[in-house]
Amino acid sequence: MKVVGRYALVAGLLIAASVTAKAEGQPNDPAFLDRALSQSKGDVTITVAVPSGSETEELFGVPLYKRKIQPVWLDIANNRESAITFLPLGLDPRYFTPIESALLGSGGADKADLAIRKFFFERKMNIYVEPGENRSGFMFTQLQEGTKSFNVDVYTDEDQIVNFTFFVPVPGLRLDHQAVDWDTLYPAGDIRELDKDELIEALRAMPCCTTDKKAEGTGDPLNLVVIGSANDVYYAFIRAGWDETEVISRSSLTKMAKSFVTGSEYRYSPVSGLYVFGRPQDVALQKARDSINERNHLRLWMTPLRFEGVPVWIGQISRDIGVRFTTKTITTHKVDPDVDETREFLVENLAYSQALAKLGYVDGVGAASLEAPRGNLTGDPYFTDGKRVVLWISSQPKDFDDIEDLDWGAQPLR
Questions:
Q1: In three state form, how does the secondary structure of the chain look?
Q2: Tell me: the pLDDT tens digits for 86-130?
Q3: Span 149-166, average pLDDT
Q4: What residues contact 160, with CB distance under 8 A and at least 6 apart?
């Protein structure tokens, strides 16, 4: 284990507690501290780490992830001359208490004896941090696999809230974008830096729609453009409540089948491959509802275009509203034909989540009416005004009033 500095002491205390509790089937080595991330603002430093599902079970002796509970380890260093207060609701307004987590993790109150309740309680995060003091402990939060996003807010004696935002990769899921090497996706000679007029023209000239693997057929409309670095795209969408997508594997297909049979939610369900530039999507993201049959989902492809040094992505967004049988793939999601509505949902979603800096619209999809719709690769009809929304993503919070609305002569009817 590679834990340095004051975290070696924390690790040692956790391990010592683990040895005591091991006879009762409790925790083991807290190697998750190797992945700790830190941020400092003024005289306050916050360090966080999130154990995986298997690490969590080793630490606490019960399957918290199976109960949809995810511990987050916090260390707050207060180098101020006055006390600060940690505000748990900023991290997760639906957090679990330590005793509640012990009971749920154990499978019920009758199965959580005093020892395990005490074990959880003694490892909680204390909300008060005195001057010159370090406090560390666990918060028990709603489960978010893939990349865990959360705020850590502390309240000072000047009636100010100091906000820290973290995006923490959590081991356990095989995510589609993890296999993409962004630096070698295109040869250096193919990268093109464009000015505004060149960008508008290039976006108008992009293909209207996705295709199949053989570059045949006309699939879902490419009605979305995103401008931002790979990390900014992830962080902005995750802040807005979108989930990453697992690769297609035996494990994910098993989860998918179980969710289909039970009608339950599967937040990280694989998304089928559609093709642009001769390859399937680089990134797929989704907003699941209570049933796997219903979700908003989008696909993104990084283009070789750059605007002000920032990557330009082309994409597709639509809303799944059910499942139907098909001769091509046995079953497929049924897409809401009003694809413009889902496009505008994304604009509002990112704006309200403070993840949007600028937006504009260009032509390029081609209009299709409600009376004469087009069809995608699986035969679902859709209609559209033919516009692409262009979104400048911000990984840092952006106030709603500060979003710049660009008039590029292709504004949709609203």
A1: CCCCCHHHHHHHHHHHHHHHHHCCCCCCCCHHHHHCEEEEECCEEEEEECCCHHHHHHHHCCCCHHHCEEEEEEEEEECCCCCEEEEHHHHCCCCECHHHHHHHHHCCHHHCCHHHHHHHHCCECCCEECCCCEEEEEEEEECCCCEEEEEEEEECCCCCEEEEEEEEECCCCCEHHHHCCHHHCCCHHHCEEECHHHHHHHHHCCCCECECCCCCCCCCECCEEEECCHHHHHHHHHHCCCECCECCCHHHHHHHHHHHHHCCCCCCCCCCCCEECCEECCEEEEEECCCCCEEEEEEEEEEEEEECCEEEEEEEEEEEEEEEEECCCEEEEEECCEHHHHHHHHHHHHHHCCCEEEEEEEECCCCECCCCCEECCCCCEEEECCEEEEEEECCCCCCHHHCEECCCCCCCCC
A2: 999 999 999 999 999 999 999 887 777 889 999 999 999 999 999
A3: 90
A4: none
Burial class (CB in 10 A: 0-12, 13-18, 19+), 4: exposed
d(CA 25, CA 308): 56
The amino acid that residue 32 corresponds to is F
- Residues forming a β-bridge with 140: 71, 96
Both tokens of 63, joined, read: 């399957």
At which residue do the structure tokens 């005289």 appear? Answer: 43
Mean of all residue pLDDT scores within the chain: 85
Q: How many CA atoms lie within 13 A of 340 on its CB side?
A: 18
- Structural domains in the chain, CATH included, are 6-169 (2.60.40), 176-405 (no CATH)
SS (H, E, C) 33-59: HHHCEEEEECCEEEEEECCCHHHHHHH
Q: What is the CA radius of gyration of the chain?
A: 24
Q: pLDDT band at 256, cuts 50/70/90? A: low
CA atoms within 13 A on the CB side of 125: 27
How high is the pLDDT of residue 9? Answer: 44
Q: Which amino acid is at 161?
A: I
Nearest to 393 by CA among 311, 316, 277: 311
- Cβ distance 59 to 71 under 8 Å? yes
